[in-house]
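Posting here for the record, re: magnesium ion.
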Amino acid sequence: MFARAPEHRNIVVLGSTGSIGTQTLDVVRQNPERLSIVGLAVNSSVQTVCAQAREFGVPHVAVGTKLSADEMAHVRASLEGVAEAACGPDAVLELCRMPEVDLVVNALVGAAGLRASYEALRAGKVLALANKESLVVGGDLLIPMSTHETLLPIDSEHGAIYQCLLGENPDEVVRLWVTASGGPFRGKTRADLAGVTVAQALNHPTWKMGLKITIDSATLMNKGLEVIEAHHLFAMPYEKIEVVVQPQSAIHSMVEFSDGSVKAHLGTTDMRIPIQFALSYPERWHAPVQPLDFRQLGSLEFAAPDTQTFRCLALARAAGSRGGTLPAAMNAANEVAVATFLAGNCPFLSIADAVEAAMDACDVQPVESLEQLEEVDARARAAAAAYLERLR
Ligand code: MG
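Prediction output follows.
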């Protein structure tokens, strides 16, 4: 039924110093006989990646930011006898193309991860995808290049749906239920949210994650991005994808079938579980995670998301349903607005307004190429920045 997992996998980790990256390294630490890291890439965390390369004996390191000759000499000295190092965006892509690589973990942040996803699939690697923006922006390009066996989601909801669908006929699926914790502002009104601080928005109730995704969770944009991600990954129309708030984050998502049966995937909120599944598939390996104790869990709550207050979810769904280049514009505007909010330069509620302004300004076209998507991305960033600038 399933292809057998190769005995040993050579993996590359893009974004190795972020939240998903460091947890991926944890999974490798637990499974040294099954996994070897042959490449590490970071945006700019040079010291940390050098330490990681030394710990895991990684032969290739790439730094996405262009470093000066002096800085590169320092990196090379630090990796002497361990690894080769290179810098610049092409150095990151080069790791994806190395012949010895079996699987690429893409944990880069934002639309910047799209090109790496594209190169990994083009080079025939298995892509373990934590960078959901790749699919939001370029799903129309990536999906035709991938199969069920070569594109594995690391997002917990999508990992859950993927597992619920194993052995099932997709034609018998009635609905995908994507669960949401509701974020730190669940139950709040727009008036409550007008003056919230960055620290309040970063205080996620159930998951510990990077900055950008934590703000996206507070606005529910993360769930909007995940609806688009699910649409692409599972070839489901948007009418068949529903979001349900599940504050305990114990149910990671559900699939409803035509006979009324519903399959749910549960587990503790530990991202090493979905990460390891993407690396071990089609096998399951032992993992030293905290088991989910149902006697302590007590109860599970469910609620409809409040899309009047959390407009980003509705905007993302609208962008996905319209399709073409609109999700790319929506995503780019969101990245700009989130960065602006994190810098303390715009109110929380303006994130959705900036996204909407950039969507309104987008001339929606069918997706044709990476270059076209990069142009759309740049134009939407400018539109969102201009909108936010006018607020100041
Ligand atoms: Mg998720």
